[in-house]
Amino acid sequence: MTILSTILEHNEQFVKEQQYEKYATTKFPNKRIVILTCMDTRLTELLPSAMNLKNGDAKIVKSAGALVAHPFGSIMRSLLIAVYELQADEVYIIGHYDCGMSSIDTDSIINKMVDRGIDRDLFDTLAYSGVDLKGWLHGFKDVTASVKQSVDAVRHHPLMDKTVPVHGLVIHPETGKLDIIEDGYSKVSAKND
């Protein structure tokens, strides 16, 4: 039995037994927040529990390392849509300790791509086209600095509402303890004084 067939078998029972009813909510976040966090599997249930979030409380956007890598990429678009269309009044950038993006070996990733059938000549084509593949795949050395960089990218984005607090936190993936890196309220109040 494949993973997909196992999922679909479970899903059939889930729908048949109407287990979805306990998750009913609207598309608008009850706590009016949007979170950008890492896709790390340890955070799937830990992060919402550590923040006392229930289904429907927050918009959650996930990416490798909780990075805002491009000012007009899909991550930033998702945050802007959450603020302007989906009633999020605050943004939380939440990285985590022991993040895989802090130890990325880009040469190893490229070799794994080749092992899975990607033609090595493609890398030359990408480089010729101006794509810095190693830079694009690269992570970060310090999660705190990375969170600050993403917070700054969101806070100073030309399309972001300057009255929206943008917070930066780092979670411990074993305990769920949150360390505050940037208090978005202090930055907003300083601008409004």
Automatic annotation (TrEMBL):
It catalyses: hydrogencarbonate + H(+) = CO2 + H2O. Its cofactor is Zn(2+). CDD domains: beta_CA_cladeD (cd03379). This is carbonic anhydrase. Coiled coil: none annotated. The lineage of its organism: Bacteria, Bacillati, Bacillota, Bacilli, Bacillales. Its EC number is 4.2.1.1. SUPFAM superfamilies: beta-carbonic anhydrase, cab (SSF53056). It comes from the Bacteria. It comes from Sporosarcina gallistercoris. The keyword Metal-binding applies. Belongs to the beta-class carbonic anhydrase family. Keywords: Metal-binding, Zinc. It is an enzyme of class 4 (lyase). Signal peptide: none annotated.
